[in-house]
Amino acid sequence: MLNKASIFTLICCFLSAFCIAQETEPVKDTDTTTQEIPKVLKQRQQKISDKPVIIDSTVLKESRIYNPLSPSRAAFYSAVLPGLGQAYNRKYWKIPIVYAALGTSIYFYIENNKQYNRARDAYKRRLAGFEDDEFQNKFTDDALREAQKTFRRNKELSLLITVGIYALNIIDANVDAHLLQYNISNDLSLKPHYKIEEFDNLGRVGLTLNFQF
């Protein structure tokens, strides 16, 4: 009876030791594919981290403070002195264009006015009975009348062009001041972006055009 109890006790101790050994022994996975997946992901993540990330320039762009008086001030400066509004907007290359256009139109106005006065004075002297005008034996009375009409029309046209250039100089300064403060919103933008595909975990570089109403 004692021998049976001893044998039973030894069997129980052996089974207990075997169960403990099974629990503490680590399970080895023989599947090589499960071991390679983490390595592949780690390599791809390393490649992605080595690539430069493109950051949207509009995010880093410092927003400008809007000054509502700036366009009015630029227009006022150009009204006082043509080209001064362009200098206020720092568009210095426009100043020679403004003065060249104004100078040309003013020159033609002065020249046509001069020729008109010459033809008119000669015609008046002929009407008064004098025959010593500078156009004597060159132009008839009818020719002097037509010359007066032509030079007067050209003189008035030159004056209108001069006024138009002067007004355009003011409008240009005002519009430029508005555009210098204009900030393009996200409703209309063209910017690069960087995206990681979910399937292959690889980076893609693209170009996005946003146009919203």
Based on the model shown, name its key terms.
single chain; 213 residues; mainly alpha; 7 helices; 2 strands; DUF5683; DUF5683 domain-containing protein; signal
Describe, in plain words, how this protein is organized in 3D.
The protein has 213 residues and is mainly α. The chain has a domain at 66-184. The chain is built from seven helices and two strands. It has helices at residues 2-24, 32-50, 57-60, 69-80, 84-88, 94-127, 141-180, and strands at 188-196, 203-211. It has a two-stranded antiparallel sheet with strand order 1-2. The protein is rod-shaped. The chain starts with a helix and ends with a strand.
SSE blueprint:
Layout: H1 2-24, H2 32-50, H3 57-60, H4 69-80, H5 84-88, H6 94-127, H7 141-180, E1 188-196, E2 203-211
Antiparallel strand pairs: 1-2
Tally of alpha and pi helices: 7
Q: What's the average pLDDT?
A: 75
What series of H and E elements makes up the topology? HHHHHHHEE
Rg calculated over all Cα atoms:
46 Å
Strand order of the largest sheet: 1-2
> Largest sheet at a glance?
2 strands, antiparallel
- Overall spatial form: rod-shaped
Ends: how far apart? Answer: 98 Å
Estimate the strand proportion: 5-15%
Portion in helices:
55-70%
SSE-based structural type = mainly alpha
